[in-house]
Amino acid sequence: MIVRISTEGQYELSDADGEALNELDNEVVLACESGDATAFHATFSRMLELVRTRGSRLDENRLAGSDIILPPPDVSLDEARQEFRGEGLIPG
Amino acid sequence: MPGLSGRMSTVVKAKISKLLDRAEDPSETLEYSYQKQIELLQNVKKGIADVVTSKKRLQLQTEKLQQQVIKLDTQARQALAAGNEDLARLALERKNVAQTELQSLDSQVAELENQQQQMTASEQKLRAKIESFRSRKEVIKAQYSAAEAQVKISEAATGVGEEMADVGLAMQRALDKTENMKARASAVQELEAAGTFEDLTQIGSGEDDIDRQLRQLSSTSEVDSELAKLKAELGAGSSPQGALGAGSGSGSAAGSDQAASGEGSGQQEQAS
Prior knowledge:
The complex is a heterodimer of chains A (92) and B (272). With 92 residues, chain A is α+β, with helices and mostly antiparallel strands. In chain A, a hairpin with a 3-residue loop joins strand 1 and strand 2. Chain A is built from three helices and four strands, in the order ββααββα. In chain A, strands 3-2-1-4 form a four-stranded mixed sheet, with helices on one face. Chain A has helices at residues 15-34, 37-54, 77-83; strands at 2-5, 9-12, 56-57, 68-70. The mean pLDDT of chain A is 87. Helices cover 79% and strands 0% of the residues of chain B. Residues 1-14, 201-206 and 238-272 of chain B have low confidence and may be disordered. Chain B has helices at residues 4-22, 26-81, 85-143, 146-193, 209-217, 220-235, 251-257. The longest helix of chain B is centred in the middle third of the chain and has 59 residues, at 85-143. Chain B is built from seven helices and no strands. Chain B is rod-shaped, with a radius of gyration of 31 Å. In chain B, helix 2 runs parallel beside helix 4 (146-193), helix 2 crosses helix 6 (220-235) and helix 3 packs across helix 6 (220-235). The chains are: A alpha+beta (92), B mainly alpha (272). Chains A and B meet through strand 4 and helix 3 of A and helix 1, helix 3 and helix 4 of B.
């Protein structure tokens, strides 16, 4: 699957890594709901790290839409609360 | 897909697909999307230019403030050497304000520099995608039937559209931060306009509004300790060397008040 980190770029991830990302996504939703900034930043950083280390950068010339779009790395908890709610960025 | 970034690209995708539905001739659509992309690339360049302008303005302000800090420090020394502690304190208070502003300006300039680099990188990436779209467009026009072309265009346009939405988002964030900095910079300009950093020797005797505000702004303890340091430096041997220029005003008080200034060892009762 293709994942974009906003303002950074697109990465290609295996489905298994996508699963791991989904689990973190659910954790981030919980942190957002409880308004816990520390937990949010910690988990969101792990999401970014997962994408950066497990994914491979999409070729610059490839024109493809992303399956998941993560907010920018410098996102604040307030901004993130608009995005990470309900099922999070990844349904399920 | 929920979310700020998700929504943004959804809007772009929706616009593109609407465009595709309406068009009768795919090659026309291709040309039109390509023109739109070029236009948006120009906007990105303009956005970068804005950031550079803001950065330069802040840098200019930084230089000005650095000069003020040096000037006020010199004035504090002169005032103290002339035995006018009140004036020295005033100069140090203003120096304190200028230094605080300077620190925040420095970090803002660094942040803008960072933004500029990020935006330049995004612009290059977007340009690569648009270039890729351009060559794809020629292939599609040459090789595909109208129906197939429609699908291919949609894929390619989605890829570019998302990239564009992302650059747009990066730019918006950069500009938002720049706006905050502009507000801060104009606050400094107002202080300047109000004479905060003017030559102290030209200011009259009485304490005015600016002085009172300054006193609140600057940390008294910092000013106190700096004043003590200056006294120690000057106290080692140098005798008062003439009065400051015209404006020092409160002159009559200077003599008696500062009698004990050099020592700072709690001999205030001496005079009485």
